[in-house]
Write a structure and sequence with these properties.
The protein has 730 residues and is α+β, with helices and mostly antiparallel strands. The chain has six domains: 180 residues, Hypothetical protein af1432 (Orthogonal Bundle), CATH 1.10.3210.10; 136 residues, Beta Polymerase, domain 2 (2-Layer Sandwich); 75 residues, Beta-grasp domain (Ubiquitin-like (UB roll), Roll), CATH 3.10.20.30; 63 residues; 109 residues, no CATH class; 76 residues, Alpha-Beta Plaits, CATH 3.30.70. It is built from 31 helices and 20 strands. Strands 1, 2, 3, 4, 5 and 6 form a six-stranded mixed sheet that branches. Helix 1 packs parallel to helix 3 and helix 2 runs parallel beside helix 4. The termini are far apart. It binds manganese (II) ion. Manganese (II) ion binds next to loops.
C-alpha cells in the first residue's frame, strides 16, 4: 500500500501521462511506480532526500518533456533499480516483460560506459550504438536521467560537479542534438555552462534579466501588427518571443568576440501555424514581408529542403521597429514538434497510428543517427564542441554499421562490400552467394556498403566463389576464405595438369627435370611450372605438342645429355649434402670400402641407411625404407650391412626442404627468420625461384635430428602465404 505522499505523486504522474501521451496503461505505470518506491525505500540522494524522488522526476521528464510513451515512463521509474538495489533484471523481466527489461538493462549498461569517465574504447561506442539501435527509448531515458541529475547537481562535491558538467557538454548534449531533442539539449547545455563557467553564466543571466522588461516590450510592439494581419487572413497561429539560451549566447560572444549587448540585441520571434498546411507558412512569410522590410540574404527555406535531422521551418530576418533586426521562424505545429523533440516526435506520430510515411521518417531518423558513426561531413551547424565530439567519433570512422533483414547489426570496415557482409554472416553464406539486395534493391556484389544499409544475401547451393571476389573483398575473414578457396582450387587444377603432363611425358619417354622444363616454359611465357600445368589442365596448352617440341629439340641439339644429365635442384642438393659429410662408416669392415649411393632412393645425410654389398660396385647405400632393400632386409639377407653417416662435429645432419606458396613482399625474409629463429637453425644454402605469384624455395639446413626438422617444417607452414613445405625427397 502506498503512503499518502506517494499516492499523490502517482496521481500527478498519471495525470501528466494522460495529458501528453496517446495511450496510457495505468496499471503498468502504477506497478513500476510501486516497485521503484519499494526497491529504493532505504536509499537517499546526495541532497539527503529519499532516492525515489530521482526516478520519479526522470519519469516526469519522460512523460512531460519528451512525451514518448508509457513504456518509457515505466522504464524511467525502474531505470536505477537494477544498478542500485537488490532487484535484478530477471525480476524486472518477470514482472514487466522483455521490452522494459531490455530498456532498463540498456540504460544500466550505458551508465557503466559513460561512468568510465572517458569513452576511449571502440567497443564502448559499439555497445552504445547497439543499445541505441535496439531501442531508442534507452537513450531517451538516459537523457532524462542526466537532465534531472544536472538539475540537482549542486548537491554533489565540486570536483564531481565539474566532471559531470563537462561530460554533459561533451557527450550528452551532442547526442541529444543528434536525436533532435532540442529542448533537452539546450537545458543540458545551459546547466553544464552554469557549472563550468559560473561567472560568465551569471553575467549573461543578469544582463538578460535586467533588460527583460525592455525586451518583452519591444517584442510586443513587433508582434501586434503581425497578429492583426494574420487574424485578418483567418490564420490559426501562436506567436511568441523566442527564448534565448545562455550557452548559445556565450558561444556567439566567444565566436564573434562581441560583447553581450550586441548579441542579445538580436530579437527572435516564432510563429507556429495550427493548421497542418505548409503553404500557410509561405503566406505568413509574405504578410510579414509586407509589414517589415526583409533582408533577402537571411531568408532560409528549410521547408522545401529540410535539414538532415528533419528540421523544417522558414527563417527570415526583418528590420523591426527602431531599425532593430528581428529573426522570425515560421513553421507548422508538426514541424515545431519535430524541431523540439526530434526522434520523440516521430515516435509520437508512429504510435498515433499514422501510416507508412511517418514510420518511414522514424526510420530515416534512426538511420541518420547511425550515420554519426560514419562521420565525414561537417555541416555549417557544427559547433567547435561538436567538432571535438566528431573527432572522438572519427577515431572509429573506419567502421560501418549495417543490418541483416532481421535487424541484427553487423560491423564492417569502411569500404566493405556485399561479399564481406556475406562472409561476415557465415562462411557458408559467403561461399554460396549469388547476389545481394541493399535496402531492397539488387546490387552488384562489389557495391560498397554504407552505414545503416540493410543487406540481404541471396545464396544458391550450387554457387561457388568467383576468383574475382578477392579483388573487392576487404575484410580479413572474407579474403582469407576466398584465398584459401582459390588456392585449393588452383592446387587441384595444377595437380591434375601435372598428372596429365607426367603421364604423357612418360609415355613419350621424355626425361626432363623440373629445372629444364622451367626454362622451357619460360620461353613459352609461363612464369612457372604451376601455371604451365594449369594451362595444360585448362587446355590452353597441348601437352603433346610440347612433348614433340621438346623431344625434337633434345634430339637435334647436343643437349640430349644436357637434358638428362644436368643436375636437378634435388641432385644438386644431394651432392652438396654428401660432400659435407666425411664419408660413410661401414660396420664390420676395416679401412676404406668403395661405396656408391643408390639412385633409386638417393639417401641424404640424416636418413636411416643400410649398405648392400654388390659385386664389382662396392657397397650401395640405400635408405632403410627403400623399396628395393625392404624385402632383403626382411629376409635377413646376408649382403645387407649396417652403415651410418659420420657424426658431424656439432652432431648435425644436413637436410633439405622445399617451400612453395604465393609470393609476397618480405616472404623470403619471413621464411628465413622462421628457420633461423627455430632452435638457431643454421641455413647452409638457399635457392629461390620467384616468378610473379609463385614462390618456390629450396633450403639446405643443419638439423639435429628428424624432430628438429619436423619442427622447422611445422613452423614454416604457419608463415603467411606458404602453402606447401616438404622435406626434399625424390
Ligand atoms: Mn538515474
Amino acid at each position: 500500500m502506498l503512503l499518502a505522499k506517494h499516492k499523490k505523486k502517482l496521481d500527478d504522474l498519471l495525470a501528466v501521462c494522460h495529458k501528453n501521451l496517446h495511450v496510457v496503461n495505468d496499471d503498468l505505470i502504477t506497478r513500476a511506480f510501486e516497485m521503484s518506491v519499494e526497491a529504493h525505500k532505504h536509499d537517499l540522494r546526495s541532497s539527503g532526500e529519499p532516492y525515489f524522488g530521482h526516478p520519479f522526476e526522470v519519469a516526469m521528464v519522460v512523460a512531460k518533456e519528451i512525451a514518448l510513451d508509457d513504456v518509457s515512463v515505466a522504464s524511467a521509474l525502474l531505470h536505477d533499480v537494477v544498478e542500485d538495489t537488490d532487484i535484478d533484471i530477471d525480476i524486472i523481466r518477470k514482472e514487466f516483460g522483455d521490452t522494459i527489461a531490455e530498456i532498463v538493462d540498456g540504460a544500466t549498461k550505458i551508465s557503466n560506459i559513460f561512468d568510465s569517465h572517458e569513452i576511449t574504447q571502440a567497443e564502448n561506442y559499439r555497445k552504445l550504438l547497439l543499445s541505441m539501435v535496439n531501442d531508442i527509448r534507452v537513450m531517451i531515458i538516459k537523457f532524462a536521467d542526466r537532465l534531472h541529475n544536472m538539475r540537482t547537481l549542486e548537491y554533489l562535491p565540486p570536483e564531481k560537479q565539474q566532471r559531470i558538467a563537462k561530460e554533459t557538454l561533451d557527450i550528452y548534449a551532442p547526442f541529444a542534438h543528434r536525436f533532435g531533442l532540442a529542448k533537452i539539449k539546450w537545458e543540458l547545455e545551459d546547466l553544464a555552462f552554469k557549472h563550468i563557467h559560473r561567472k560568465e553564466y551569471e553575467d549573461i543571466a543578469h544582463g538578460l534579466n535586467s533588460k527583460r522588461r525592455e525586451r518583452e516590450h519591444y517584442i510586443r510592439k513587433f508582434i501586434v501588427p503581425v497578429e492583426t494581419r494574420l487574424r485578418q487572413s483567418n490564420l490559426k497561429f501562436e506567436i511568441e518571443g523566442r527564448p534565448k539560451h545562455l550557452y548559445s549566447i556565450y558561444n556567439k560572444m566567444v565566436k564573434r568576440n562581441k560583447p553581450l549587448e550586441e548579441i542579445y540585441d538580436m530579437f527572435a520571434v516564432r510563429i507556429i501555424l495550427l493548421t497542418p498546411d505548409n503553404n500557410e507558412c509561405f503566406t505568413v512569410y509574405g504578410i510579414i514581408s509586407e509589414i517589415y522590410k526583409p533582408i533577402p540574404e537571411r531568408f532560409k527555406n528549410y521547408i522545401s529542403i529540410p535539414k538532415k535531422n528533419g528540421y523544417q521551418s522558414l527563417h527570415t530576418t526583418v528590420v523591426g521597429p527602431e531599425g532593430k533586426m528581428v529573426e522570425v521562424q515560421i513553421r507548422t505545429r508538426q514541424m515545431h514538434e519535430i524541431a523540439e523533440r526530434g526522434v520523440a516526435a516521430h515516435w509520437y506520430y508512429k504510435e498515433n497510428g499514422s501510416q507508412a510515411p511517418l514510420d518511414k521518417e522514424l526510420e530515416n531518423w534512426i538511420n541518420w543517427v547511425r550515420e554519426m558513426f560514419d562521420q565525414k561531413q561537417a555541416d555549417e551547424s557544427v559547433s567547435p564542441k561538436e567538432l571535438i565530439e566528431s573527432f572522438k567519433l572519427n577515431l572509429y570512422q573506419d567502421e560501418i554499421y549495417v543490418f541483416t533483414p532481421k535487424g541484427d547489426l553487423k560491423i564492417l570496415p569502411k569500404g566493405a562490400t556485399a561479399i564481406d557482409f556475406a562472409f561476415e554472416i557465415h562462411s557458408d553464406v559467403g561461399f554460396h552467394t549469388i547476389g545481394a539486395k541493399v535496402n531492397g534493391r539488387i546490387v552488384p556484389l562489389n557495391t560498397i556498403l554504407r552505414s545503416g544499409d540493410q543487406v540481404e544475401v541471396i545464396t544458391s547451393k550450387k554457387q561457388k566463389p568467383n576468383f574475382d571476389w578477392e579483388k573487392f573483398a576487404i575484410t580479413h575473414k572474407a579474403k582469407a576464405h576466398i584465398r584459401r578457396y582459390i588456392k585449393e582450387e588452383e592446387r587441384k587444377l595444377i595437380d591434375e595438369g601435372k598428372e596429365i603432363w607426367d603421364k604423357k611425358a612418360k609415355k613419350a619417354k621424355l626425361h626432363i627435370n623440373d629445372d629444364d622444363l622451367t626454362k622451357y616454359v619460360h620461353t613459352k611465357r609461363y612464369d612457372n611450372l604451376q601455371l604451365f600445368y594449369l594451362a595444360i589442365k585448362n587446355d590452353e596448352v597441348d601437352a603433346d605438342v610440347v612433348i614433340n617440341e621438346l623431344t625434337d629439340t633434345s634430339l637435334r641439339s647436343e643437349g640430349v645429355a644436357k637434358v638428362e644429365d644436368s643436375t636437378s635442384m634435388f641432385n644438386k642438393f644431394v651432392d652438396t649434402a654428401r660432400n659435407l659429410t666425411t664419408g660413410i662408416s661401414i660396420f664390420g669392415t676395416k679401412g676404406d670400402m668403395l661405396y656408391t649411393y643408390a639412385k633409386c632412393c638417393s639417401p641424404i645425410p640424416g636418413d636411416d641407411i643400410v649398405g648392400y654389398v654388390t659385386t664389382g660396385e662396392g657397397i650401395k647405400i640405400h635408405r632403410k625404407n627403400c623399396r628395393n632393400v625392404q624385402s632383403m632386409l626382411n629376409n635377413g639377407e646376408e649382403r645387407i650391412v649396417r652403415v651410418s653417416w659420420p657424426d658431424s662435429g656439432a652432431g648435425d645432419f644436413i637436410a633439405g626442404i622445399r617451400i612453395s606458396g604465393t609470393d609476397r613482399s618480405g616472404l623470403l625474409n619471413d621464411v628465413t627468420n622462421a628457420i633461423s629463429n627455430f632452435n638457431n637453425t643454421n641455413i647452409r644454402g638457399v635457392t629461390v625461384n620467384t616468378k610473379d605469384s609463385f614462390f618456390d624455395g629450396q633450403f639446405i639446413l643443419y638439423v639435429k635430428d628428424i624432430a628438429h626438422l619436423n619442427g622447422i617444417i611445422e613452423r614454416l607452414k604457419r608463415v603467411k602465404n606458404i602453402s606447401k613445405v616438404e622435406r626434399f625427397d625424390e
